[in-house]
Amino acid sequence: MAPPKQLITTHLGKNGPQVSPVGLRLMGASGMYGNPASDNERLAFLVPRIKWARRFGILVSDIYGDSEHLLGKWFAANPSKRKGIFLTTKFGHPKRDLANLQGTRAMNTNPEYFHDALEASLKRLGLPYIDLYYIHRLDRMEYNTFCLDIESPKYKLLETARDLGVAIVAYSPLGNGLLSGTLWSKEDFTKPGDLHGGMPWFSDDHFKTNLAIVDKIREIAKAKGVTAAQFTLAWILAQGEDLFAILGTTKAHRVAENLGSLDIIVNPEQGKVVGGRFPAAIMEYCFADTPPLEA
Questions:
Q1: pLDDT tier at 276 (50, 70, 90 boundaries)?
Q2: What is the value of pTM for the model shown?
Q3: What is the mean pLDDT of residues 184-198?
Q4: How far apart are CA 228 and CA 174, in angstroms?
Q5: pLDDT at 265 over 70
Q6: Cα–Cα distance for residue pair 268/234, rounded to 1 Å
Q7: From the candidates 64, 113, 143, 171, which is the catalytic residue?
Q8: At what angle do helices 228-237 and 252-259 cross, to 10 degrees?
Q9: pLDDT score of 177
């Protein structure tokens, strides 16, 4: 399915700017799922993505390899494109080493580090401003057809966000590629530097069970004449106009496929699959109170 001729936008939060409900994360393009391609290949890869832009959201991070440097090079070569991009980046991991975070999940969100990290990101991007600045993973929760924890009465995250008029951004809505229906064996993610192998839903204990669920999603999607990824994204967006999806890829045609989900209508209840995701220790890490400011 081709991307929509007119990119749909909606308010990011009650009084926020108009942004496309489906955005792009440059984590994969910076080598988090294997060694990155050359700068020329990656910069060329950005071109077909951006040509559909009308406040198209792009997410980078100071911990996603050289994603900020890469996008900075692209903006330097295409300065007129900046106004069509809703640019976000993230901070919070002082070590800035995503590949070696296991057991070293210390966060730094104090005001001094906030300003230093922001200045460093702006320098790498070569820009005077960004549109939205995230804290990296302090209270992040994924939202996809595998994981519905934000709806839980225990956390009341979705309920509270809606009471406050705050948008929900679905991080990794395709489960790091699992819900795309394109990963069927461990051989699909064995490249050097690929982080998939360390994710619980790809472990030997869970992978086969999760694939069975993905197969059911594919069947529903096939009946609608769409891909599993498109159905999953359309399902997420059908949960409310305050839902946004940010996802990564290294293939230009996948961007077109993902944007095609904006034309799909699904019943919000259709395809709902409830399942576990993270071990308890990691779940505790996903929800945390903001540290109090020191006097």
A1: very low
A2: 0.78
A3: 66
A4: 9
A5: yes
A6: 9
A7: 64
A8: 40
A9: 77
Whether residues 67 and 203 fall in one domain? no
Per-residue model confidence as pLDDT tens digits over 99-120: 554 444 567 778 888 899 999 9
Report in angstroms the alpha-carbon separations of 211 from 74, 206, 217: 37, 9, 10
* Pairwise CA distance, residues 264 & 169, whole Å: 19
**CATH code at 277?**
3.20.20.100
- Which stretches within 203-279 are classed as H helix? 207-224, 228-237, 252-259
Residue 192 lies in a domain: yes
Residue 56 lies in a domain: yes
- Asked about 64 being catalytic, the answer comes back as yes
Please report whether residue 27 resides in a domain. yes
Number of domains the chain is built from: 2
* pLDDT(139) > 70: no
Instruction: Print burial letters for 115-141: b (CB count within 10 Å at least 16), e (below 16).
Output: eebbeebbebbebeebbbebbbbbebb
Q: What six digits make up the tokens of 141?
A: 């929760």
Does pLDDT of 199 surpass 60? yes
- CA dist list (Å): 190 to 25, 35, 93, 97: 21, 11, 26, 20
Domain co-membership, 110 together with 152: no
CB 273 within 8 A of CB 235: no
The span from the CA of 51 to the CA of 29, in Å, is: 18
Range of the domain at 152: 140-168+175-244+266-286
In a domain, 157, yes or no: yes
Q: Are residues 89 and 15 in the same domain?
A: yes
Same domain, 200 and 152: yes
Q: How confident is the model at residue 127 (pLDDT cuts 50, 70, 90)?
A: very high
Determine the pLDDT at residue 274.
42
Structure-model confidence comparison of residues 29 and 218, the more confident one:
218
Considering only CA atoms, which of 141, 183, 149 is closest in space to residue 276? 149
